[in-house]
């Protein structure tokens, strides 16, 4: 499958449910997962785009199915624009954005990486055979996930931005990364790789 649906959700920051979701990642997960509707299968990847409070918050969601916007629009949580695009990345140089849960397993546990150099090495390993050409200073955010029933846990969300190269023989791997995401905790808005060709 080469086609995907990219949904840009512009949330209403004045809605109390949206304000809660911006500080509660599980609540935001529930809003985004309403795009599934009923009977829609396939990987849903999403990311809360960086924002500073001056602009309305934006969520990008990527699905292999046409999203169900009913819940989002009926409850007045925001507006949505949907584009159907072809998921085919040709060899070249691309600007990228990825927010991911950068961890390594040690002693049967997932340990978050806090050192920026270790985070970049982790990224290089995950992107291979794509080539990491440059990366801007990373931003790390600790997400506290509060699930129904009182269970809580934390995620180490690292935002990577920069440029990468897709070699001639790595187009299939690039497509797979965009389809399935990178790293853990993808249901919580981590792991979605976005590319924009520059050369």
Description:
Strands 5, 8, 9, 10 and 11 form a five-stranded antiparallel β-sheet that branches. This protein has a four-stranded antiparallel β-sheet with strand order 2-3-1-4, with no helix packed on it. A two-stranded antiparallel sheet has the order 6-7. The chain is α+β, with helices and mostly antiparallel strands. Helix content is 21%, strand content 40%. The mean pLDDT is 90. The chain starts with a strand and ends with a strand. The chain folds into two domains: 3-86, Alpha-Beta Plaits (2-Layer Sandwich), CATH 3.30.70.1200; 92-197, Alpha-Beta Plaits, CATH 3.30.70. It is globular. It has helices spanning 16-21, 25-33, 70-74, 116-127, 171-180; strands at 3-11, 45-48, 58-63, 78-86, 92-101, 103-106, 109-112, 131-135, 139-146, 152-166, 193-197. It is built from five helices and eleven strands; from the N terminus they run E-H-H-E-E-H-E-E-E-E-H-E-E-E-H-E. The longest helix has 12 residues, at 116-127.
């Amino acid at each position: 499958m080469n086609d995907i649906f990219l949904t840009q959700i512009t949330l209403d920051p004045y809605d109390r449910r949206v304000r809660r979701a911006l500080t509660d990642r599980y609540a935001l997960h529930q809003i985004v997962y309403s795009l599934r509707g009923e009977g829609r299968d396939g990987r849903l990847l999403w990311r809360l785009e960086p924002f500073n409070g001056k602009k309305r918050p934006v969520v990008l969601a990527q699905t292999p199915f046409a999203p169900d916007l009913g819940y989002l629009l009926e409850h007045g949580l925001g507006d949505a624009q949907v584009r159907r695009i072809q998921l085919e990345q040709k060899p070249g140089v691309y600007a990228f954005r990825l927010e991911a849960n950068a961890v390594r397993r040690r002693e049967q546990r997932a340990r978050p990486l806090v050192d920026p150099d270790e985070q970049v090495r982790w990224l290089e390993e995950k992107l291979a055979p794509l080539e990491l050409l440059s990366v801007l200073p990373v931003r790390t955010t600790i997400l506290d996930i509060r699930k129904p029933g009182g269970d809580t846990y934390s995620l180490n969300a690292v935002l990577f931005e920069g440029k990468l190269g897709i070699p001639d023989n790595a187009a299939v791997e690039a497509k797979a990364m965009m389809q399935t995401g990178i790293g853990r905790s993808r249901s919580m808005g981590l792991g979605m790789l976005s590319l924009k060709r520059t050369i």
